[in-house]
Design goal:
The complex is a heterodimer of chains A (293) and B (321). Chain A starts with 10 loop residues before the first helix and ends with a helix. In chain A, helix 1 packs antiparallel against helix 2, helix 1 crosses helix 3 and helix 4 runs parallel beside helix 5. In chain A, strand 4 and strand 5 form a beta hairpin. Chain A has 293 residues and is an alpha/beta fold. Chain A has a single domain, classed as Thiamin diphosphate (ThDP)-binding fold, Pyr/PP domains (Rossmann fold), CATH 3.40.50. Chain B is globular, with a radius of gyration of 19 Å. In chain B, the strands form 3 sheets. In chain B, strands 3-2-4-5-7-6-12 form a 7-stranded mixed β-sheet, with helices on both faces. In chain B, strands 9-11-10-13-14 form a 5-stranded mixed β-sheet, with helices on both faces. By secondary structure, chain B is of the alpha/beta class. Chain B has 2 domains: 172 residues, Rossmann fold (3-Layer(aba) Sandwich); 131 residues, 3-Layer(aba) Sandwich (Rossmann fold). In chain B, helix 9 links the parallel strand 10 and strand 11. The chains are: A alpha/beta (293), B alpha/beta (321). Chains A and B meet through helix 4 and helix 5 of A and helix 4 and helix 6 of B.
């Protein structure tokens, strides 16, 4: 996709376009890096990391009020990655934002490395240990409730997998978040339609997700989860309604960015061979060249 | 204090828990209670009335209870997550393991009406597994107070602890077991009766039964030691070893399955230290239990003054062989 980087625009619009151009390039770079570390570790959740990396990119570069310097500030925004298996995407984004040196990721999944295959608080910038599914939303609701009690004004964002929504605990948390009017809580569903066994709708149908969230008292928006402009706009406009938690259903493609990984459940935790890795890099480098200003 | 006088001052540990917590929370607005439709059984209605802004109700949703408690604790709240022990430690075990213990958010997990407090309601409401499952999870201190004093001290200590803790309470009035001025420290057992012929190492509401057995045995000239092992993890290993070495026979007592609880913890300490003495774990067998009142159930499985005294006599006979 060519980004309209240099069209004549008003200053504000030009700045936004420049930002989106930068974000677009960053997403490709993140994909290159996360594949590199998955290949190096010979382990990782490739498909889901590729589907959610645009969301993480926009969150950490445009939306979240958090930095390495403010990672312990009580007023910081919180990000909880409930779909913890896509940790490789989170690691490369956190490294890029300066939470730790990217060279640390050379140890990903190695013996005694703190960079294990799911997020842990041992890593600066990570708020909560996740990996078992259906945990992040309750934790996020608790953190959001504490923020409301203390009037600290921070926001909590929780990334959920779509397959993860079969865990009943999510729906418990949705009820509580609506009951307490947690409009400082935003859930983002990485709606890539696939889980390890196959299509979500064939494994345990989720649709209509919009209606379900709405029925649980949430304010719902849908977005193309790879369109950084749309993501930036929707994630910057929370809460959608005062007094209600917000949810963004981000329509994504599992394996996004690498043609032969897209929409194929085998890449849920598939690790590319040498030849597949080279093909993937060629594709991503070509995308990067195409995105040059 | 006479038995009758002691019972006059006896309250349920659960009542003392809620009173102590209310007193602490009045002084510290960061103290919160999270309940899963369990404020009534947790004796927390007065807390809710006095401090409505410091109680979070999540409805009948124990997984959510623990997850939300972890999120609140992550933001600096001092959180007591209160639910019947049977549900708290089974329904939300994964949240306890991951969101609290592994993530090290200092939630105070409070199992109310634990053991067979809800005896007549049947096995769904018994928590005879909780000590076993929690012992196997790193970063979880386990405290099972025996009487009102231990309860009040445990609640105060838990409020200060920077890491996760599980507190286990029953709802039967408990007579005082300790003299005024006794010092309570998490991880250090308390001596309830001095003695050197045999040792009872008991926890929670079974300590009073062991003390009763001690009194029966005293009439026969047998001096039994009784330890209140209120902290099941980390275990006071020194006291366990000392009891075995000085008394030469040990009976452990718990309102819990014989599998994985206090008894097996003590056995491991003794065996791995090369100490071998006549030893018996008294608890609930690995079978579907009978149901009935807590006292009837405990007596059926030998957790009564008479039953424990009989177990002690059997062990003393082995000791003399």
């Amino acid at each position: 996709m060519m980004m309209p980087c240099f069209k004549q625009r008003t200053d504000k619009k030009r700045k936004e376009a420049d930002l989106d151009c930068l974000l677009h390039r960053k997403s490709i770079e993140y994909r290159i890096r996360l594949l590199k570390y998955i290949k190096n570790a010979r382990a990782g959740h490739t498909g889901g990391s590729l589907s959610c990396v645009d969301i993480l990119n926009v969150l950490y570069n445009c939306v979240l009020n958090v930095s390495p310097e403010t990672a312990d500030d009580p007023r910081r925004d919180r990000y909880i990655q409930s779909k913890g298996h896509s940790v490789e995407a989170l690691y490369v984004v956190l490294a890029d934002r300066g939470f730790f040196p990217e060279s640390d990721l050379e140890t990903l999944c190695r013996f005694r490395s703190p960079y294990v295959g799911h997020p842990t608080r041992k890593i600066r910038g990570i708020e909560h240990n996740t990996g078992a599914l259906g945990h992040g939303l309750a934790f996020g609701a608790g953190a959001a409730l504490a923020g409301k009690m203390d009037g600290l004004g921070y926001r909590v964002f929780v990334l959920l997998g779509d397959g993860e929504l079969a865990e009943g605990s999510n729906w418990e948390s949705m009820m509580t978040a609506a009951h307490y009017g947690l409009d400082n809580l935003t859930a983002i569903v990485d709606r890539n339609q696939l889980q390890i066994t196959g299509r979500t709708e064939e494994v345990c149908a989720l649709e209509s997700l919009v209606d379900k969230f709405a029925a649980f008292g949430w304010s719902v928006r849908e977005v193309d989860g790879h369109d950084v402009t749309a993501l930036r706009k929707v994630l910057s406009s929370v809460p959608f309604e005062v007094g209600r938690p917000s949810v963004v259903i981000a329509h994504t493609v599992k394996g996004k960015g690498v043609s032969f990984m897209e929409n194929d459940a085998k890449w849920h935790h598939g690790v590319p061979s040498d030849e597949e890795y080279e093909r993937a890099m060629e594709e991503l480098r070509a995308q990067l060249e195409e995105a040059e200003p | 204090m006479s038995g009758a006088a002691a019972m006059e001052t006896a309250k349920a540990n659960l009542d003392v828990f809620s009173e102590t917590l209310l007193a602490l929370a009045r002084k510290n607005r960061n103290i919160l209670v999270v309940t899963s439709d369990s404020r009534g059984s947790g004796k927390l209605v007065p807390f809710a009335q006095a401090l409505p802004g410091q109680i979070v109700e999540v409805g009948i949703a124990e997984q959510n209870l623990v997850g939300i408690a972890a999120g609140l604790a992550s933001a600096g709240k001092i959180v007591f997550a209160v639910s019947p022990g049977s549900f708290l430690t089974a329904r939300s075990l994964e949240q306890i393991k991951n969101d609290v213990c592994y993530s090290d958010h200092p939630v105070k997990l409070v199992g109310i009406s634990s053991g067979v407090s809800y005896g007549a309601l049947g096995s769904t409401h018994h928590s005879l597994h909780d000590l076993a499952v929690l012992r196997a999870i790193p970063n979880c201190t386990i405290v099972v107070p025996a009487d009102n004093f231990e309860t009040a001290e445990a609640v105060k200590a838990a409020a200060e602890m920077p890491h996760p803790v599980f507190l286990r309470f029953g709802k039967r009035p408990m007579p005082p077991l300790h003299r005024p001025g006794t010092k309570f420290t998490v991880g250090k057992s308390l001596l309830v009766r001095r003695g050197n012929d045999i040792a009872f190492i008991a926890t929670g509401e079974t300590v009073v039964q062991a003390a009763g057995a001690c009194d029966l045995l005293a009439r026969e000239g047998i001096s039994a030691r009784v330890l209140s092992m209120h902290t099941v993890k980390p275990l006071d290993e020194e006291a366990v070893l000392q009891a075995a070495q000085e008394c030469g026979a040990v009976v452990t007592v718990e309102e819990h399955s014989c599998a994985g609880g206090l008894g097996e913890a003590c056995a491991a300490v003794l065996l791995q230290s090369g100490v071998s003495v006549p030893f018996r774990i008294v608890g609930f067998p690995d079978e579907e239990t009978v149901s009935g009142s807590q006292l009837d159930m405990m007596a059926y499985y030998g957790i009564s003054p008479e039953g424990l005294a009989e177990t002690a006599r059997t062990l003393l006979n082995r000791k003399r062989l």
